[in-house]
Prior knowledge:
Layout: E1 2-6, H1 12-22, E2 27-31, H2 35-41, H3 53-60, E3 65-68, H4 71-77, E4 80-83, H5 103-115, E5 120-124, H6 132-141, E6 149-153, H7 163-168, E7 173-176, H8 181-194, E8 203-206, H9 208-239, H10 243-251, H11 272-285, H12 289-316, E9 325-329, H13 344-354, E10 358-362, H14 368-376, E11 385-387, H15 391-395, E12 400-403, H16 415-420, E13 427-430, H17 437-443, E14 446-448
Parallel strand pairs: 1-2, 1-4, 2-3, 4-5, 5-6, 7-8, 9-10, 9-12, 10-11, 12-13, 13-14
Protein name: UDP-glucose 6-dehydrogenase
Function: Catalyzes the conversion of UDP-glucose into UDP-glucuronate, one of the precursors of teichuronic acid.
GO biological process, one term: glycosaminoglycan biosynthetic process
Amino acid sequence: MKICCIGAGYVGGPTMAMIALKAPSIQVTVVDMNATRIAAWNSDTLPIYEPGLDDVVKQARGKNLFFSTDVVGNIQSADIIFVAVNTPTKTYGVGTGLAADLRYIESVARMIAEVAGGPKIIVEKSTVPVKTAETIKEILSANTKGIKFAVLSNPEFLAEGTAVADLINPDRVLIGGERTPEGEAAIKTLVDVYANWVPRERIITTNLWSSELSKLVANAFLAQRISSINSISALCEATGADVDEVGNAIGKDSRIGPKFLKSSVGFGGSCFQKDILNLVYLCQSFGLPEVAAYWESVVLMNDYQKKRFANKIVRTLFNTVADKKIVVLGFAFKKDTNDTRESAAINVCRDLLTEHANVVVYDPKVPAHEIISDTLGKGVTNARLTVATNVYEACKGAHAIAVVTEWDEFKTLDFAKIYAGMPKPAFIFDGRNILDLAKLTAIGFRAFGIGK
Ligand code: UDX
Ligand code: ADP
């Protein structure tokens, strides 16, 4: 069997590497029109940082895992084609800022229709709005050659930073397809691929729309938990309660559970905001404004939390950060990834720059040029924004430190040494609640957490 995956990004790359590793009899080729990205997948420095991924790729690459720019050739020879191209939020026209931009999906569907020489199973892997499979099906069935295509939805639930562990041991694999004999046969083919390593009882099959909607709803529920605890963090700061203590107490209720109750400077990543806005757009389109408003509030609370963090820094530093040096520790949207999409750090840096602070950013994995372009826009520079390669050097002479990503290395910094090099009073704002505030206070810092 041959699998081709179109899109060598954060989803396509790791997922296909795992299929290749666990199903040695299947030949897996990941294709992308971005030649630089493909070259990186074929090199010793993979284009994405993900713990454990190097090993997985090294074991399978060249045996049954290949990375190529030959999109057409690999479409033609594949039995199953995964579509893992990007689906960003629309920045123009109808649905601007809410709806998903499906042009990459559509162009892939058109290309498959044009070049495929025989029947194929098309698997939607990218997160897409409900009913996208319908669009893909329509484009494919309009091909002039009378070829039969089956379209499946198989959303990916891996989280960045833990992708390899999530792929090896997923809570569930979800496969949606048409409940026709052809659809059922296609579902069975894909179930058998995953059954190479995933226990059958964890492979769930549904109709197409349930599968597409479940992905959006899973992300909306996870993000909702973060916004819920973040809303409580503001109340904790006002009342003297401690948000970690509240989170721990409520999480012990087995009906609530302990995960995704960590208050933070705000959630980021390519999925949560995009998928909720997609859900909002879907509800609006189906005439359900109350449902749309309910889910939109999750994103609004997240915006409020990011703003509140930056405002707190300004307010605490005597209402002015103009010309003060502020060190931002971490720029990725979470630890163990080099991905910065929708990272709270972007908003925090922008807000501090608006207040004319001198912002110095340090992140162990995000390249300097990306930090600058994410914050200011492509090609734009600002003398007030610089990137450091050494935390201790960066903190010398700083008025305040803001921890924005929970990288493990920040927990073991020598804060006494850092404190000695800062003007007094020295401030530290822990946007991830990873530091021991009592210890920092004992050193002399004026230390603040979220919801503390
Ligand atoms: C998410 C979903 O978890 C995953 O199933 C889906 O496939 C893609 O979207 P991801 O965005 O990669 O994955 O990471 P996740 O671990 O969910 O974190 C998202 C954001 O929420 C990060 O910014 C993280 O720091 C933040 N977060 C997470 C919190 O602020 N508090 C928490 O308790 C958990
Ligand atoms: P995700 O996080 O969903 O994996 P990425 O943006 O990291 O998203 O990856 C999507 C990839 O899909 C990009 O590398 C992009 O070049 C690729 N892509 C988009 N459209 C096409 C296409 N028509 N043919 C081949 N590759 C494509």
